[in-house]
Amino acid sequence: MGTDHGTESKVLRPEEFDRWWDHLIRAFGGEPASPEERELFRSLIEFDRSLAVWDGGAIVGTSGAFSFRMTVPGGAVLPTAGVTMVSVAATHRRRGTLTSMMRRLLDDARTKGEPLAALHASEPPIYGRFGYGSATFQLSAEIDTGRVSLALPAGTDEVRVRYAAPAEALAECEAVYATLVSRRPGMLVRQPGWERAELLDPESERHGSAALQCVVAERDGEVTGYARFRTKIDWGASGHDGKVTLKDLAALDPATEGALWRFLFGIDLMSTLTMRGRPVDDSWQHLVSDIRRCRPRLRDAGYVRLVDVGAALSARTYLTPVDVVFEVQDSFCPWNAGRWRLHGDPKGASCERTTDAPDLALTVRELGAAYLGGVSLMSLAAAGRVREVRPGTLAEVSVAFGSPVAPWLPHGF
Fold first, then answer.
1. Coil, strand or helix: which one is 35?
2. Which residues, 6 or more positions from 389, have their beta carbon under 8 angstroms from its beta carbon?
3. Pairing of strands 322-329, 360-363
4. What is each CA distance from 319 to 92, 324, 365, 396, in whole angstroms?
5. Bridge partners for 139 per DSSP
6. What is the sign, positive or negative, of the torsion defined by CA atoms of 337, 338, 341, 345?
7. Which residue, of 123, 156, 164, 196, has the fewest CB within 10 Å?
8. What's the CA gap between 223 and 180, in Å, rounded?
9. Distance CA 211, CA 63 (A)
């Protein structure tokens, strides 16, 4: 497949992986990945879904996709193209290289019957023009644990927390993760092999912290949660000033979650707990005594693109009954463009082509942003990105598209 200016896009071959990876590392700032990370992704990469753009004998562009499955509102799990490892050499900007790769990846997702595509954007302005909407957000915090206390849920004292070697506890932790996947839109089913990514602990990511640690929580002899974290000791004029950095935490019930937060707040010699990539409705916000001393910050996280509008909108459920005709614009995937009638409720939905008059007009980017229920159509309309054609439609459809829990995409790829 050719691109402009004599470059050529080809499916990546296994023997080309090292050159492909080296280009990718340079494009993302040049900090070398650990040998463990390189070998892990060599084993995980789907070569038939990975592209290398060549200019003569040099690789000048990379991209790929993983065959994932994502939970959508209502609990259904949809095939999803996890778009990843996208880069273009600084010497080959504005030559159509990125557009060519995006074209091929989305065509491939459609051929494979994947109604959705998703990605984590290193540069948010890039992907809107390809129809991706900012659909999930993440919460970060830096908590002064010396001055912030916790009001814990009932049953917390019944939970036992114990240290466990991260590798030895992996299967138990993955069982907890697997149980949680169906509970929250945006979460990905962990494909075989990907559990090893949770144990990556390169020194380049520690920033002076100790090696990755793990605790598991148990109730009645069953593992009901876990936390992975790093610690970094420091000393000031007044004594210890250590930091705990949370990598991930998962719990099956409020008491378990409370026990894990209590443990993290109480580690000896530590004064600060930092975290990032948490769901925006994370429970600790309602347990702490002083939210301001937690310094919460919000930022974008997962971007979603509807590859097949009809299949995607049919696959999820809706909080309230909805019967609406969308006028959809999609210049990059024209098979989605036109009018679609969505009829749905909390039990199921159907979405089919129609010639009926539209009620709402929007682009596929807005549908992607609202699809998981974390961004309201009302807020998009207030920004001028959704147009109400039939008065009174917008509010009811916006409510129907909501989700009882905030969507979250914690699975890195």
1. helix
2. 327, 357, 358, 359, 360, 361
3. parallel
4. 46, 14, 21, 10
5. 278, 298
6. positive
7. 123
8. 13
9. 31
* Packing angle of the helix pair 17-27, 35-44 (nearest 10 deg): 120
Is residue 4 pLDDT above 80, yes or no? no
User: 226-270 pLDDT, tens per residue?
Assistant: 999 999 988 877 778 899 999 999 999 999 999 999 999 999 999
Catalytic site includes residue 127: yes
User: Residue 27 and residue 7: Cα distance in Å, rounded?
Assistant: 18
Q: Count CB neighbours of 208 within 10 A.
A: 10
Residues 6+ apart with CB under 8 A from 217: 159, 160, 161, 223, 224, 225, 226, 227, 251, 256, 259, 260
Distance, C-alpha 19 to centroid of its chain = 27
Contact assessment for residue 327 and residue 333, using Cβ atoms and an 8 Å cutoff: no
Task: Point out the catalytic residue in the list 177, 326, 401, 413.
Answer: 413
Q: Which two tokens stand for residue 390?
A: 């039939």
Active site residue 177: no
Residue 114 CB burial class (10 angstroms; 0-12, 13-18, ≥19)? buried
The runs of H, that is alpha helices, within 6-52 are 17-27, 35-44
**Residue whose token pair is 């023009």:** 129
Residue 239, Ramachandran bin (φ over 0: left; ψ between -120 and 50: alpha; else beta):
left
Q: Which residues pair with 360 in a beta bridge?
A: 326, 388
| pLDDT tens for each residue of 99-151 | 999 999 999 999 999 999 999 998 888 999 999 999 999 999 999 999 999 99
Give the length of the chain. Answer: 413
Query: pLDDT tens-digit profile of 316-328?
Result: 999 999 999 999 9
Q: Which of 127, 130, 332, 371 is catalytic?
A: 127
pLDDT at 3 over 60: no
For the whole model, what pTM was predicted?
0.93
